[in-house]
Amino acid sequence: VTHELPLSVVIGAQSGEAYLGRKVPSYQAWQCINRNIPADALVLTFSDGDHYYSERRRIWSQSPLAGSIIQKAAGGNGEEAIQDLRQIGVRYILFDKRQTDGADPGASILREAGQATATLELLYEVLLFVLYRIE
């Protein structure tokens, strides 16, 4: 354990699921993904450090391939970026609302373009995360 011992889990006062749901902001979103999207799906994710909880293939927005597409969106080409995501096999996007609310222009523009053109279908939303399917 690198940060703290989950004492409440160790002594049985809290389940591991409840503890992870409280400590890992995207945990509940990944559990929804694991239960509800196809096993061979590819998810573009704007979340970081939570890959241990994913049972689906994922591509991080900061990876070289996805990063170039996100840069295209940041340049104002959101619709073209969504088409590029389709071409590489991405069918789902997990946004971190902290990024789409202004911290990451590429994420914001990508989400806005998808919503404006109805190419993104909302599947799940929790406090800080939102999951879309690319139509």
In a few lines, what is going on in this structure?
This protein has 135 residues and is of the alpha/beta class. The chain contains seven helices and five strands; from the N terminus they run αααββααβααββ.
What would the principal axes of the Cα set say about the shape?
elongated
Task: Summarize the amount of helix as a percent range.
Answer: 40-55%
Overall structural class, as computed from helix and strand content, comes to alpha/beta
Biggest sheet features = 5 strands, mixed
User: How are strands sequenced across the largest beta sheet?
Assistant: 2-1-3-5-4
Query: Mean pLDDT across all residues, rounded?
Result: 87
Q: What is the H/E string?
A: HHHEEHHEHHEE
Structure write-up:
This protein is an alpha/beta fold and 135 residues long. 46% of the residues lie in helices and 19% in strands. The protein is built from seven helices and five strands. The radius of gyration is 16 Å and the shape is elongated. The model has no long low-confidence stretch (mean pLDDT 87).
Comma- or semicolon-separated keywords:
alpha/beta, 7 helices, 46% helix, five-stranded mixed sheet, 135 residues
Topology summary:
Elements: H1 7-10, H2 16-23, H3 27-36, E1 42-45, E2 57-60, H4 64-74, H5 78-87, E3 92-96, H6 97-103, H7 105-116, E4 120-125, E5 129-134
Parallel strand pairs: 1-2, 1-3
Antiparallel strand pairs: 3-5, 4-5
Helix pairs in contact: 4-5, 4-7, 5-7, 6-7
